[in-house]
Records
---
Amino acid sequence: MFSALADPTRRAILAELAKRDATVTELTAPLSISMPAVSRHLKVLERTALISRTRSGKWRESRLDAHLAAVQAAGRATDRMSHDPWVRDNKVPDKEL
């Protein structure tokens, strides 16, 4: 993840996606690189789970806000389960067995 964030172009892309969802074409406009290069950067960000991408017809949007919300929701669900006295912890053996 840190190597993905080390690249200034990827940080610029993340900064733009923090503002809004965007297509590859929209992300390419302010950068001085080609659309295939932006796509490669997006693939790196997606592989490191920093963004998620969706496709609607021929449009593919890169989403940071939806991805962060999903990660946070998963974390909250995990926290609730770990503190719920009714949910059995598989790591602790039953004394009754």
---
Amino acid sequence: MALVLRLPITISSGNCYTLDLLVGSQATPVTVLLDTGSSMSAVNIDVYDPGADAAATTTDLLQSGSFQGAASFLAAVVQTPVGLQADGATPVTVPKANLGVVYKVQPFLFGKADGILGLAYPALNAATRMPANTWDNKYTPAQLGPGQAAGTLAPCVDQLAAAGEIANKFAIAVRRSTFSQGPDAAVLNTGVFVLGGGEECTELYTGAFATVAVVSETYYNSNLVAVQVGGRTIQVGPPPAGSDAASNSFLDSGSNQLMLDPPLYQQVIAMFNEVDPAFGAALQAGSHDQTQLDLTAWPTLGFVLAGAGGAEVTWTVEPKDYWQFDGYGAGTARTGLASGGAPHPGQSILGLPLFANHYVVFDRTAGPGRSVIRFAPQPAAEAAPLVA
């Protein structure tokens, strides 16, 4: 019988949510970023050494990647057990998970985490076949010339689903998009990751789900139809001709901002200025004395997305979610809107401000090409604290 695991996640000062994995024959604990914007599973060598792992099989495969604009890294692909366990639940383990081991550690590559757990599709999990064992040789970027494309590797969660251990879905419930340094930080900085389930966790949401179509299974690609600021609306077009973007937007739990395509960002700022001439400048400044922000005067931000069956759904972001109080320190608000940062022109990254105070289910159970994302509001914080 497929299991449903409820796992605690925590946002750190690196501003991404993390969870704990158990790696190798010694079940070494590692903390990894939870990232729907990538597919690689990788850890740093300083926390996990394949040479000390009796279950590890090294390979001639090499992976490269980067995270949040940091310098790129190389990782030797190792196959070894990777496990997850919720309190009181049966542990779930991938016996031969595809794990990249970053052998040249870069400070804060993954923030304060030890690695990353990518939750997107295999298309983002490419590997290169090198002439010899990548763990033994620890190739440098200058030595990549003889490498040959080796296709894509199955991400860790895909391996679990293929083995029948879990249903091919997961869900995320969080309150914040940035690390809180305020008085309620202990509660606000935690969340829940539901692996293998979603809708059955009825205490994590209220009301009916709305459904967003995944229009390309690379990232969780979506079609952003329009953006609303209060009663004002901007239509959003497709990526420009010649762009390699599979769609004009995608959902990314590895980004703590709504990173809008630059022309769209400027249009959104202009709409905020139509509400109040001071609003645009405040957002563009990035941070603000929160005692000077009256959030009741700020408009709701709406993202109109293509839904299943051709319908459109509106995903709202409240002022308290695009302004994160106590986000740069106690008493300072941080904005959740940014210009640029997506991989391709004409594309926007819909990050954690969209997730905040929603319950978001990534459902891939219908098979290739038929994924959807469902979302519903969370109950009020005082009514149902997030507990895994």
---
Amino acid sequence: MPENDLNIKDIKDKEATKPENKEPIDILLVEDNDQDIKITLRAFSKAKIKNNIHVVVDGQEALDYIYNNEKYKNVKDATTPDLILLDIGLPKISGFDVLKKLKEDSNLKHIPVVMLTSSKNEEDIVKSYDYGASSYIPKPVSYEEFEKVVDGFNFYWNIINKLPDLK
């Protein structure tokens, strides 16, 4: 391979050492399934790109966290997320309704929202993008497949993508 040709692994290794990529991002995981939460956290941990991941289990709790309401009113840990991973089928308030509310709020619409859901329904995909989702990722069936998705996700959001510095 010529010296100037790099493969993805080389790029990941070089980019991961840049100082601007050492700062973890705050990710809000909105997921109601305990097993999916454990799998997601385990896969992110195994990907070895450090992020601050906060977990909430329904749509109302997601909005409370983001707007610092209810139990998050005086919590220092409740920071505005840099990125939101949002399931569609949530209790109390659906993922679609959370997404729609965030994208209608001029103070929050800049936050990238990735729909991370088991639905592969074309209508859900279209609706997610219509409401302003940044990406739509169907959850793979196996843990090994999910690890690959998280690794690619981490590479994209932490190495390639540039998030606005609004903090």
